[in-house]
Amino acid sequence: MAVRMTKPWLDLSVETARRLSGQLGVYELGSADGEILYIGVAGGRSLHGLRGELLRWAEAPPEGVTRFRYEVNTAYRTRHHELVGAFRYDNGRLPRLNTDIDPKRVSNLSPG
Questions:
Q1: Can you give the residue ranges of every domain in the chain?
Q2: The pTM is what?
Q3: Element (H, E) at 14
Q4: Which of 45, 109, 30 is nearest to 77 (CA)?
Q5: For the chain, how far is it from start to end, CA to CA, in angstroms?
Q6: Which end of the chain is flanked by fewer CB atoms within 10 Å, N or C?
Q7: Is-contact 106 81, C-beta < 8 A?
Q8: Residue 84: CB partners within 8 Å, gap ≥ 6?
Q9: Which residues contact 24 (CB under 8 A, 6 or more apart)?
């Protein structure tokens, strides 16, 4: 598995989100030009897993969020940490909408 998410982007809409499974995993929200704006997790406390998390975003998307991609993954916490670490390595910062993450708690990651 690649460190960075390589899944194709999907349009963020209520209809698309409703078609997702209720499984656990990670997701990225992005802009029309492919900028990653948020890296999230659908964990054990997420109501309806990926479907519930992405439906919540689709119903009231923040400005600039138009797309998403996701991975089903039972090791969602570890995978989320990898994705955030890789983003910070590439950009020197966290995604703009990830105000829910303390930057001091993100490990330095050096993906190859």
A1: 10-104
A2: 0.92
A3: helix 14-18
A4: 45
A5: 12
A6: C
A7: yes
A8: 39, 94, 95, 98, 101, 106
A9: 42, 43, 44, 46, 49, 50, 72, 73, 74, 76
Separation of CA 46 from chain center: 14
In whole angstroms, what is the distance from residue 42 CA to residue 15 CA? 18
* pLDDT one digit per residue (tens) for the chain, 112 residues: 578 999 999 999 999 999 998 999 999 999 999 999 999 999 988 889 999 999 999 999 999 999 999 999 999 999 999 999 999 999 999 999 999 888 877 877 766 6
CA–CA distance, 81 with 28 (Å, rounded to integer):
13
User: What is the distance between the alpha carbons of residues 44 and 103, in angstroms, rounded to a whole number?
Assistant: 23
What class is the 10-104 domain? alpha beta
> Residue ranges of the alpha helices (H) in 19-91?
49-59, 76-91
Rounded Cα distance, 95 and 20, in Å: 24
Phi and psi angles of residue 9, each rounded to the nearest 5 degrees, phi first:
-75, 145
